[in-house]
Amino acid sequence: MSLPKPESLPSWRGPVRVLGALSATVVALPLAGGSAQAASVPLPKPSRSLPSALDVAPPYQKGTRCLNESQPGPVAFAKLLNATYGSHTYGVLRKCDQEHGEGRALDWMLDARRSGDLAIGNTVTRWLAAPDSQGRQGAMARRFGINYIVWNRQIWKAWAPERGWQAYTGSSPHTDHIHLSFTWDGAYQRTSWWTGTAVVDYLTGPKSGGSAGGSTSSSPKPTAAELRPFVSVGLQRGSRGAAVAMLQRALGGIAVDGDFGPITEHAVKIYQKNHGMWQNGRVGRTVWRQLVTEAEERAGSSGSVSTPPATLTSAQLARYVGVPLSRGSRGEAVRVLQRALGGITVDGDFGPITERAVKLFQKKHGISQSGRVGRTVWRALAGQKPGSSGSGSSSSSSSSTATSPLAQYAKITLRLWSRGEAVKAVQRSIGGLVVDGSFGPKTLARVKAWQKSRGLAVDGVIDAKDWKVLIARSTSDGASSSSSKGGSSSSSSTTSSAMTTRFTALKSTTLRKGSKGSAVRTLQATIRGGVNVDSTYGTATERRVKAVQKAAGLPVTGVVDRKTWDAVERMAHPLLPYWGTVLKRGSAGKAVTALQQAMGGDVNVDGTFGTATERRVKEVQKAAKIARTGVVGTVTWKAVEAQMR
Length: 645
Prior knowledge:
The chain contains 26 helices and eight strands. The protein is mainly alpha-helical.
């Protein structure tokens, strides 16, 4: 789920500012004007020796909570400024308003129209954002734990210091105050200016917030009403407080201590896997909404258990014959499946219980027990026998047809934009393709090449004549079987060669402490985490690389090898596995789920590409200035990925 950037945060504007209406946006001070006076303006003096090491610079830490007190860091900084420059009005806490609502944003009042105030403002903000004697950008901002600054129509961001000062175009020009947003470490005065010790591992939330002493995993699961206030709260490893405790209660089976550590992260990943979500271990709206839905079902407000199979007509089931389902799928098609199977909860969520029921049904009807639902299962649910005209198997009784796993598709015609298990079977059989079940342009080109090589009509359509050749080949030399076994590696190699990124050429380059050059710069710009982008592989870069390796389950060596480059590439391009997948209205499955999660907005994450998903895709395409087709190809995947940053 993508976070709003500070530039887009709402600002209050008016001729007069009062503390109750201070802007929640951080202001970056422009250096134009007042520079002559700035030279004579003093700088704040530290009360203790500062260490040579710098504090880590976290990513943008958006305010999401409603807290009831100003944090000590912003207050102490305001007092430091007042002690240095004379008394100025300032404000910190403003109820439920982003970082101000958490008591960790400071508005220190100055008037840029006055030369004296302009000189002070320029001096303070330039001092905070400037490099130190070692060339480390924003050194003082990091020592105070300042996340970003806005002042006099400009903004500066601690997590991207290489961008320098940028124009700020919010509704308020921030000419009557400096706005400083503090990280949680800065909010608690944990940073080196105050303690003399640089922060290495940053906080991601308040130290406490209602979790009393770490209750046990036997805590009762929360109600939907208890969960709803937290739906907008983002959590990840390192977060702490009441929201984490609520999450732990909802997940169950883990200690409820309000501390989002590795055990909680592991539990989140398992939950995401079981519900077909992106397994990143982070908690956003998608996870919270699913937890709310489950709480509602526990209360009996939704979901019913069907004991005997529901009586559904063939016509009702036929609507879903082209919809492939598997563990993680969600939506109305899953509800119909559950009703038809009987004996399981009808909740529209294809979880392990539904998968087990599908396997039992497949076993009973002599179908391969994959736990996945394709045309064969749907037709069996509708009461059609495998040999019937609607089953998709060939009417021929020849031994080759009867023994080929492709026989079930022999009466299905496939062409551009077809989807499903039959497409996967073709992709596996002819080889050289990503086996994704989507008959896109690449599959079309490969089919035509295959038809030409077999002396068939080169029309790009798979019909009875093509299936006959595929079936004969699979039964005569086992090609279908070997293709199926090798499908994964073929898919991987094809994906790897087709989906090149700026990291592809770097994967043969090994980096370690002491390395220098453009490869190091690319690495630093991607892994972030307080690393200075200076093209030199130093201690901070090594420490961050080790953190990336640990998170990816790799050996923690600090040496960047091919596997580490792969992990870094996934950080930069989380949707890379789907770049070669074409989606459009009517598509379904994990790729659609990943798309919906990544796009955000009001789209229901159900794995089904419906009207709302298409509308959201067009919005993304419009914002990226690409054709508003509503069809998702590589260019649109990249556009969705870009909006996540």
